[in-house]
Amino acid sequence: MMASRALRWLGIAGVLVFVLCASTPLPILLSHRPGLPPALKPAEAIVVLGSAVNAQGVLNESSLRSTLHGILLYRQGFAPRLVFSGTVTKPGISEAQIRAEMARQLGVAPTAILTESRARTTREEAAYLVGLLQPLGIQTILLVTDSEHMVRAQPLFEHVGFTVQPAPAAWNKSGLQLTREVVREFLARLYYRLAGYL
After folding, report:
1. Which tens digits make up the pLDDT trace of 33-42?
2. Which residues of the chain have pLDDT under 70?
3. Among 105, 40, 43, which Cα is nearest to 71's?
4. What is the DSSP string of 68-124?
5. In a 3-state reduction of DSSP, which class is residue 164?
6. Which among 87, 122, 156, 172 could bridge 126 via Cys, Cβ 3.0 to 4.6 Å?
7. Which domains are delineated in the chain?
């Protein structure tokens, strides 16, 4: 009897959370992060963080939007270098290389493009990219990722020595998508803090 009542209340709570996340501004309120600069300034490089690519070489929506945002910033003259991160999938498909090819097709000079395909986490991206860029004298970067991920990514890149201007790739997510991103980033930041990375 008690177990059945508990399950009923759990079900009601689950439905309530679903409705709140799917049809109210709650996810937007939870994800709101003030303090992003109203205007970007020129930097030495634009760094576009990795997201995902499938086995057929198709970028996911987040990766595609970040890629196009980075290309647009380059074409607007914000930096002379455009850097793409993105891991290699099992069939040998590199997200970074797919993004670089897209940039070339959209008019970015091949000599302006750099790629990094080894990193599998945001922390590894910061470590590998500092090794790639600082020998070239690059210290000031525009960092491109989505707004939720930026809260974790910016301090990681600042920790390794970069001067970071956040340049989030904004896009409209559904309430459920946004809730998933907020929860994922909360757990990731908690892990990074417990591990001493932030």
Report:
1. 444 445 899 9
2. 1-38, 171-192, 195-198
3. 105
4. HHHHHHHHTTS-S-EEEE-PBPTTS-BHHHHHHHHHHHTT--GGGEEEE----SHHH
5. strand
6. 156
7. 45-172 (3.40.50.620)
